[in-house]
Design brief:
The complex is a heterodimer of chains A (246) and B (275). Chain A has 246 residues and is an alpha+beta fold. Chain A is built from 5 helices and 9 strands; from the N terminus they run E-E-E-E-H-E-H-E-E-H-E-E-H-H. Chain A has one domain: GHMP Kinase, N-terminal domain (Ribosomal Protein S5, domain 2), CATH 3.30.230.70. Classes of the chains: A alpha+beta (246), B alpha+beta (275).
Chain lengths: 246, 275
């Protein structure tokens, strides 16, 4: 990753006009797929991602079933029209890896032991990709799992932090991801205070590493508020504000 | 599609209990301290047909890596740089649980995490490996084969790939009539730093380094951290189905810097390369 131009102007504003500690706009709608047991649609900056959850349901093929807990299956997939140059619809190595880290980010939040011999399938479809689609995908998937009524220990919220122009900033966008110095996606359970996903590419020194991690966790907590509001909106509708006051 | 799986090796409940008891007292079943890395053996240049090679044994885990150099087109968006392509394969010789076939998600992750450590630390200065920018560049293949798997394949594979690159001599290509021609001469690769990967796993409330296969079967969560020669972090990957507290991660990062330096000295010594 080589820097070709300045990504933060003299007023501290980033390429999309945000300050260093500001998230892109996030909008989550719950229950968008009628046939699914749980679903969510997230708009995270320019990301548009739909997540459908099916299950707990019978496992096919049957030999994959686990006797003492539920099988969680997760697929992260990008539609061919989601990127600048058309993406081949066949799963890439990147998607295989993201599917895996996504499953591992969600699994600690779920009480899989409550559904032995069953499967829960999480399908994450990226309709439009901006930077940070894995974080947006995890965020939406956790909401969709809650919408499906799966027993959970906590909601998983995800957000990246990174280094741009030698500064640690929150929620890296596409340009900053491609031209910036470092990107650290983090998933976090706000109540249990546990990190369930941590990746980094790009160079950070010791202080920057700690600062980046703290900043990303702060971002996850902000994302959590949006997730909570979206779920409240679906299940309590206009009473949401009343509940908030109580 | 990524799916929850049974642990690859089955560790009996009694053995697991024994492991937990032992680890909580600060000692592991093989007698190591919690932050002790198994003995490392490195042999370089064993494959004469390759441009560079290394065989690394990390305890009983064993990986052979080979570097092959060709010329070809650059990657899209990286027109002025040489291309680095890293692959990893866990051979069916490696354990009774491995079967031949296309790579599963664990192997894809292994290759991508090792690649990320080398790429993001900019170990190779790829900008020095373009012949005609945008048209013909050096293509460096680093292929890693795990021949025996006893845990911590991330670090073992990374050490093998890095050692093979440090051991390599690249052919000198010349451009004649807009074609790359091998001059028969050799050159040192443009190395800038030595990335070192350190993997830690959490078992209960303890975090241990360099897990064996048995320990991996009992782990709650894993973290792989790659540092460069300046002791900065270049790549991180959390794995497995558990979680970490923020403080545990910061401590693991600090440990990776200290232990990384010990391993780096070892890699330099074994390959007799500078930087």
């Amino acid at each position: 990753m080589t820097q070709t131009r300045s990504l933060i102007d003299e007023n501290g504003k980033r390429t999309d006009g945000r300050t260093g500690d500001q998230l892109r706009e996030i909008k989550i709608t719950v229950g968008v797929i009628k046939n699914a047991d749980g679903s969510a649609f997230i708009e995270f900056g320019m990301n548009k991602i739909v997540v459908g959850v099916y299950g707990p349901r019978e496992v096919h093929p049957k030999h994959m079933a686990l006797p003492d807990r539920c099988v969680l299956r997760c697929r992260y997939h990008m539609t061919p029209f989601s990127t600048d140059t058309r993406k081949n619809p066949a799963p890439s190595r990147r998607e295989v890896e993201i599917s895996k880290v996504m499953r591992e980010a969600l699994e600690p939040s779920l009480m899989l032991e409550d559904y032995p011999r069953a499967a829960i399938d999480v399908y994450v479809e990226v309709l439009q990709a901006d930077g940070g689609s894995r974080c947006a995908g995890i965020t939406a998937a956790s909401v969709a799992l809650a919408d499906a009524g799966i027993n959970m220990r906590d909601i998983v919220s995800a957000c990246a932090a990174g280094k741009v122009d030698d500064r640690i900033v929150l929620d890296i966008n596409d340009t900053e991801d491609k031209e910036g110095d470092a990107d650290m996606p983090v998933a976090y359970m706000s109540h249990l205070e546990q990190v369930t996903l941590l990746q980094l590419d790009g160079v950070l020194n010791e202080d920057q590493f700690d600062q980046c991690l703290d900043e990303a966790v702060k971002g996850c907590k902000m994302v959590y508020e949006v997730q909570r509001k979206a779920l409240m909106q679906k299940y309590f509708g206009n009473e949401t504000e009343l509940k908030e006051e109580q | 599609m990524s799916s929850s799986r049974r642990s690859t090796i089955i560790v009996e409940h009694l053995r697991k209990q024994q492991m937990w008891d032992s680890i909580s007292k600060g000692k592991r079943l093989d007698g190591r301290a919690l932050d002790e890395i198994r003995p490392i053996e490195i042999e370089v240049g064993l494959i004469k047909k390759a441009n560079g090679s290394a065989r690394v044994k990390l305890g009983n885990s064993e990986v052979v890596a080979g570097v092959k150099v060709e010329t070809g087109e650059p990657f899209e968006g990286l027109e002025n740089k040489g291309a680095l392509i890293l692959s990893a394969e866990v051979l069916p010789t490696a354990s009774p649980y491995i079967e031949p076939g296309p790579p599963d998600e664990e192997t894809v992750e292994l290759a991508r995490v090792v690649d990320r450590g080398i790429r993001e630390s900019e170990m190779l200065d790829l900008s020095k490996l373009a012949l005609i920018p945008g048209e013909i560049v050096y293509v460096i293949f680093v292929d890693c084969s795990v021949i025996n798997a006893d845990g911590n394949l991330f670090d073992a594979t990374s050490y093998a790939a890095v050692s093979a690159l440090m051991n390599s001599k690249l052919p000198v290509f010349e451009i004649r009539d807009r074609k790359a021609v091998d001059t028969g001469e050799k050159q040192n690769p443009p190395l800038t730093t030595v990335p070192v990967s350190i993997t830690a796993v959490r078992i209960g409330e303890s975090v241990i380094l360099d897990p064996t296969a048995e320990e991996e079967a009992c782990m709650d969560a894993r973290i792989t951290i790659t540092t460069n020669s300046d002791h900065n972090f270049a790549a991180v990957q959390k794995g497995s189905t558990g979680a970490f507290a923020v403080e545990q991660l910061k401590r693991a990062a600090a440990t990776a810097r200290i232990k990384g330096e010990e391993i780096r000295a070892k890699l330099r010594e074994s390959t007799k390369a500078g930087k």
